[in-house]
Amino acid sequence: MNKYKTMSVLPWTKRRVFVIMATGLFERRPDMYRKILVPLDGSELSETVLDQVVNIGKGCRVPEVVLTRVRYPLDKNVEQTLDAKIAVELDEVYREEAEMYLKKVAADLEKQGLKVSNVVLSGNPAEEILRYARENGVDLIVMSTHGRSGVPRLFFGSVADKIVRHSDVPVLIKPPGHQV
């Protein structure tokens, strides 16, 4: 689809669409984005968006990139089975692991010239990402998707799909194995 066909379709869409022109035919505004949210789940797949984050962050001179990892709280059955003190300690270990992971990724992005902060959230991933974006002035969410379809998607759901459908801000999704 060429630039003109793409632009003629956009007014008819009901959702915000983020278009990247492969040839660079669009004008970058330095103030286009002020805060980018990058949800990561700790997998190599989730990290495949980091090149795009660097390109957008540098190209648009984004003042802040926020890395986030959402972890599920301990299951109530686990909490009831374990001693309360052990459950709290285990929960803290999971939080610390998530924080260490985000600090490592942030250090790599900072070496490339981005200003990065981290936040560990707890709860349902899609709901927490949407809540954080809404409450913290996020302008763009950049994330990868596992690319599930059919029964696996129906069974496991798709965090990316829920975010695209319910986000108040533009969302850039990178499918597995695709260059954006």
Question: Describe it for me?
Answer:
- The N terminus is likely disordered.
- The chain has one domain: HUPs (Rossmann fold), CATH 3.40.50.
- The chain is an alpha/beta fold and 180 residues long.
- It contains seven helices and five strands; from the N terminus they run H-E-H-E-H-H-E-H-E-H-H-E.
- Helices cover 43% and strands 16% of the residues.
- Helix 2 links the parallel strand 1 and strand 2.
- Helix 5 packs parallel to helix 7.
- A five-stranded parallel β-sheet has the order 3-2-1-4-5, sandwiched between helices.
- The protein is globular, with a radius of gyration of 18 Å.
Task: Give short descriptive properties of this protein.
7 helices, 180 residues, alpha/beta, 16% strand, globular
Task: Kindly summarize this structure in a few lines.
The protein is α/β, with parallel strands linked by helices and 180 residues long. The protein has 7 helices and 5 strands. The chain has helices at 3-9, 50-59, 76-81, 84-111, 125-135, 150-156, 159-166, and strands at 35-39, 64-71, 116-122, 140-144, 171-174.
